[in-house]
Amino acid sequence: MLYLGGFMGRDPVITREGLQQLIEQGDLRYIYSDARGTGDQAGISTWVRNTCAVVQGYDTNTPNASAPDGTQNRGNMAMSLYDCG
């Protein structure tokens, strides 16, 4: 599992080029992401949205409740499953 963005999208886990390399090598195929192109990971989000195909039936609205203290963001993240294979 590769978690992109971390807290507030500011954790530079991997670059767009690194993600592309994982896909080209066959080490990664699916990405479950909020790929609206926002935050510090906007380049990756935009690349996923423009390069990979949305897998129909896996779109969800997920409460943003990932803060370490358990507090919730009042908004939802629109998540989609992308097939990058």
Would you write up a description of this structure?
The protein is built from two helices and four strands; from the N terminus they run αβαβββ. It is α+β, with helices and mostly antiparallel strands and 85 residues long. It has one domain (7-83). Strands 1, 2, 3 and 4 form a four-stranded antiparallel beta sheet that branches. The longest helix has 10 residues, at 42-51.
Topology:
Elements: H1 16-24, E1 30-33, H2 42-51, E2 53-54, E3 60-63, E4 76-83
Antiparallel strand pairs: 1-4, 2-4, 3-4
Largest sheet: 4 strands, antiparallel
- Helices, by number, come to 2
* Quaternary organization: single chain
Q: Enumerate the spans where pLDDT stays under 50 for 5 or more consecutive residues.
A: none
Distance between the termini: 16 Å
Q: Order of SSEs, N→C?
A: HEHEEE
Got a strand count?
4
Helix-strand category: alpha+beta
Mean pLDDT: 76
Globally, the shape reads globular
Based on CA atoms alone, the radius of gyration comes out at 13 Å
Features:
alpha+beta, 4-stranded antiparallel beta sheet, single chain, globular
Brief description of this entry?
The chain has 85 residues and is an alpha+beta fold.
